[in-house]
């Protein structure tokens, strides 16, 4: 077996307690980051669900010929921001009101004439669901001669915008803070592992081992510890997710890519933490 | 092979550890480095194995010039030296033969050649029978033999020994000293720092004496004298 690999594995066997401690520390640090990540992921899902409802409705003047409407529908669908445009006739508007407004069913029944206008309901592509784009599309819709009025929940869209801004800012700041704390804690544990073997390092230097040779087992070992820590953190997060799901609210878990990213993050912290610790140690002695 | 020319070495906190030290040690020589503790013996050795930089003057060791030494040259220099300390510096969690093999492994020796080379040096220092013992199971003298075996296994041209008998009783001291003489007899130069004047008197080797960082006596240059002054 390659000497680097052998020496890295031997270190686990020689100092099982310290190794386990490093892995546990890394795991819990990443677990905290992971929990926060879970919150962020679920917040994002919730906001996406809400954003689904961002819709612009263009009410049409009565008596607009259906040919014009069909043409306009095609035009609107061709807007770069638009995901779909659907025509709702007077009759289907009434039918929908019947179905949705149960309390007013009697009132609706007694109407002599359908008071509801026909409309075109426009849905935007996800990345355009913000105030500026919604306003822009609404203005363009007003330009059609047969459009009577354009409505969308302006307050609602603005609030959503703000919420998204806050979520992103908080996510970035808190996430970065957690990540930094994790890096510091992990760096310290790795430093302990290096100090524990300082005698060995001194002897290696004495007999003429190159710095690269001394460094390699530590790097591999750090990466392995980081990876194990990442895996444990995913396991812990999954446990937390299961509990939350059963007892509190229906939540989403990380996608496969996000889970791989967390393990990758752990591996990188382990690798660079070791590189920094060993580098510092080698420069100092 | 080892040449000091007007070497000064400053302590990091001020003051001089070595003052204008010059000497030349030839291939295959045996040299005692004597003087009180703090006289600069260890500093001379550290400059030889490039543990510390020279403040001024020139140190040449086996073709390397200390002043021009790049960090990555240091391991190459040390592979030509064997170094032994008073406190042995063995890895407690490895057996005697693993300690010796370690020096070969970390310098990238061919793996298949390692066991035979380890056994050969352990035999040379008289510890073949205890190859599987851990340092704690060995006496001080035996531990120093393991350390000497480790220093020899890379076939150095010089063996540096910093008070190698400082922690040993009289019998072990005699044994280790005899081992160093045998090693020297087979062609390896030995530089031995010691303040054990009995040892120095026992053998007809060259003596370099330091006093407060200055070279005060070199038997290769100065008149012979009856007894070393310290």
Protein architecture, described:
The complex is a heterodimer of chains A (285) and B (230). Chain A is an alpha+beta fold and 285 residues long. Helix content of chain A is 73%, strand content 8%. Chain A has helices spanning 3-14, 16-52, 66-77, 90-100, 105-109, 131-142, 154-196, 198-206, 211-247, 256-284; strands at 55-60, 82-88, 119-124, 147-151. The longest helix of chain A is centred in the middle third of the chain and has 43 residues, at 154-196. The radius of gyration of chain A is 30 Å and the shape is elongated. Chain A starts with a helix and ends with a helix. Chain B has 230 residues and is of the alpha/beta class. Chain B has a domain at 1-80 and 194-230: P-loop containing nucleotide triphosphate hydrolases (Rossmann fold), CATH 3.40.50.300. Chain B is 30% helix and 25% strand. Chain B has seven helices and ten strands. Chain B has helices spanning 41-48, 74-78, 96-105, 114-124, 140-152, 170-185, 197-202, and strands at 2-10, 16-25, 30-34, 56-61, 64-65, 81-85, 158-162, 189-193, 206-211, 214-218. In chain B, the strands form two sheets. In chain B, strands 6-7-8-3-9-10 form a six-stranded mixed β-sheet, with helices on both faces. A four-stranded antiparallel β-sheet of chain B has the order 2-1-4-5, with helices on one face. In chain B, helix 4 crosses helix 5 and helix 5 packs parallel to helix 6. The longest helix of chain B is centred in the last third of the chain and has 16 residues, at 170-185. Chain B is globular and about 45 Å long. The relative contact order of chain B is 0.20. The model of chain B has no long low-confidence stretch (mean pLDDT 92). Classes of the chains: A alpha+beta (285), B alpha/beta (230). Chain A binds chain B through residues 3, 14, 199-200, 202-211, 213-214, and chain B through 49, 71-72, 74-79, 83, 89, 91, 93, 102-103, 105-108, 150, 154.
